[in-house]
UniProtKB/TrEMBL annotation:
Protein name per its UniProtKB record: Response regulatory domain-containing protein
Gene3D superfamilies noted in UniProt: 3.40.50.2300
Annotated ranges, domain Response regulatory: 5-120
Organism lineage string: Archaea, Methanobacteriati, Methanobacteriota, Stenosarchaea group, Halobacteria
PROSITE patterns from the UniProt entry: RESPONSE_REGULATORY
Modification type 4-aspartylphosphate: residues: 55
Matches recorded under SMART domains: REC
Length: 122
């Protein structure tokens, strides 16, 4: 069984808890969530994170800004965006910036997110 943690960053606490619950059923990794980019960077320093899942809009920083910082500090860590934005141009820009995947956020997309995480970590 794989080991490690998927870290989900979203300022919406209720939705983050739902994501944690659903992903913990669908993937073979522990799932944790934090609310801010700063909290994510702090948690990444603790190690054992195998994939970072980001919302596009975060308090204090944006998902793209956090992607750039994470890519610089942890260049081998896969990053998946899970966001309510439905913009193909933004998705393309995030992939070009280093994101492994860009999944549109809604309650019916947990399977797609789980697949994206598995593919990113593989």
């Amino acid at each position: 069984m794989p080991t490690g943690t998927v870290l989900y960053v979203d300022d919406d606490r209720d939705f983050a808890e739902l994501v944690e619950l659903r992903l913990s059923r669908d993937i073979d990794y522990a799932v944790e969530s934090v609310r801010t980019g700063d909290a994510a960077l702090e948690r990444l320093e603790d190690g054992n994170v195998v994939c970072l899942v980001l919302d596009y809009r975060l308090p204090g920083t944006s998902g793209p800004e956090l992607l750039a910082e994470v890519t610089e500090r942890h260049p081998r860590l896969p990053v998946v965006f899970f966001t309510g934005m439905d913009d193909p141009e933004t998705a393309s820009e995030m992939r070009e910036a280093g994101a492994a995947a860009f999944v549109q956020k809604d309650v019916g997309s947990f399977g797609t997110l789980a697949d994206a995480i598995r593919e990113a970590v593989a």
